[in-house]
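Retro notes - structure team

What went well: the batch runner handled both jobs without manual restarts.
What didn't: labels got mixed up in the shared folder, which is why I'm recording both outputs here explicitly, each with its sequence directly above its tokens.

Job 1
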Amino acid sequence: MIYVRIDLASYKLCSFLELHPKVLRDFLRKQISKTLVKTENTSRLNRVILSLLLVILLHPTQALACSVLYYKDLATGKIYAVNAEDYYLDVDAYIQIEPKSKRKFARLWYGWDDFAQGGINEHGLFFDAAITPEQQRIKGYRNPRNNLGDKILALASTVEEALEILEKEKIALTKSHMLFGDRTGQAVIVEWVGGERKLRWIDDNKLVMTNFLLSEPEAGNHPDFRYNSIIHRINELESSGQEINLNKIGNTFGLAVQPARADENKRLGGTIYTSFIDITDNKFVLSYRLSNDDLVILDLKEEFAKSKRQTMNFEKLFN
């Protein structure tokens, strides 16, 4: 993986892909037809992914990778997180579940090349990251040299503890920002802009992060239709009076995923996976390549109680 081995400042590499309406429609019609065959165990998740595909079909446009949401339902207090991970589809992506030890928490992360792109631990600490316009390096700080996400999930149980690790390690990403959220309802987006660390704390019940710097949007990638769409769809959901659950929160990512398409070098890119996490009830669902069939559904409490490391390689699991 280029940005792990050569430039850790990138942390998570995201790219523009032009989405031609006809390409989208042809692809999505095939995907939508698959939802006609549903099983009892996956019918609810199918509706989520079907909704994501329908929205893209109706609103074909340019897509920029990487969208993250942390959300607290004010009516129930339940907390959810959603991530759309977009990159080249030939990467060897997988889920890694590390068991609890004397000094480290049990944790699950997803990514590739031994590098966590996002994840959650047994205490409900969630994180994810997204690329941003490059910023000047902060004096005395550095980009990570190892699997930063895994280390934070292993040692931190709250947002505050995660921030302490970043400061202790003198980490300041020059091409990315990070979102941390925990089971208490606390969440923050961390950015390193203009020679200092900027913290965007949750001030209502949601935090959305895509690929522009919230503390300096004029730096690039703004305005962002994906960010605005997620906010808009959350507002619609809240004003509808409907009961909020993981499926409906997942539906807010209708414009935050992208079907596969080749770039100028004929390399396929798109949404590798979309993760849906109920942090309160320890439920985890991952859809691989926008598929209704290729799903990972986990009870995190059960997985974190296991004593052995688990690796779930998507290509091996679904092919």
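Job 2
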Amino acid sequence: MVALLRMTSRAEAPLRGEATAPRVGGTPGLGRAVVLADGRVLGYDDIGDVGAPVVVYHHGFGSSRVVRHPDDALTARLGIRLIAVDRPGIGLSTGRPGRRLLDWPSDLVQLLDRLGIERAHVLGWSGGGPYALACGWAMPDRVNRIGLISVAAPLVPGADYLLRMHRVASRAADNAPWAIRLAMWRWSRAQRADPERHLDKAIEGMIEADRIVLEDPGLRRVMLANADEMYRQGGRGLYDEALIMARPWGFPIAGVQVPVRLWHGELDTAVPVGMGRYLARTLPQVHATFYPGEAHHLLYDRWTEIIEAFMAPDVAPVAAGDAATTIGGARRRP
């Protein structure tokens, strides 16, 4: 969603019903897919031990399942089974034109059923957060906990965290969706034409806190891989994602009864910290951590800390409307 707003960024045998999909780098557990009831394909990567607690990872806007912490071995050592899913029209997942945010939980339920998973944690980064929250609202019987990292809030008219670009995007989504499609086309055209130049230009425009994080060569490889992966199905998926981010979500945030952990950098310029604070004061059961001096990509530096806190069994429930808030410590690598 950042690009849109700135433009007015295991080995297992195939299961029954599972489609054949390319495997990224030939690595077991990567590049898998299932066929949904309507014939669409939903692609995912499956990292970690099959018996470990499941975390479904929702990638950000303008990315795909590959944009996650680049060290899958570290993720597995943290004792979780991470399932990173491509949303419709992105990566390995075939499109669903005109989809809305609340169409997503039914896709995820089918994936969990095919994999024999009764309950899971859901984790969203950036533009993936609304999808994680939608799952918590629509399928609370299948979701143990929700994790939100640098997550966008809905573009509610009059909200104190809205910038001018947010208001423009919200109006365009209903009154001039062609403008959003044109913006996404221009952005994707530049990215596909020269991924390295496009990435370098994007990093140059970031604040120092994010530039430091993205100096990691492993992260650069992930970002460049995403430039191909995101457009496997063409550009329509990106347009659908942009419309979903700019339109009302279709459910009350205050109605999400699943416990939430939230992490946000106070210097975030992609998703302003005001959005994180809005979610922290609106969600009924939330523990929020805010990091002074850090920004949008804190996910990568804080991955171990976040996963350990997310999976900890002793997260105390919080009274409705009264977020438990902590201030994050000094930056550290995983």
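One thing worth noting from job 2: Strands lie at 18-19, 32-35, 41-47, 54-58, 81-85, 120-125, 143-149, 260-265, 286-291, 324-327.
We'll revisit the folder naming next retro.
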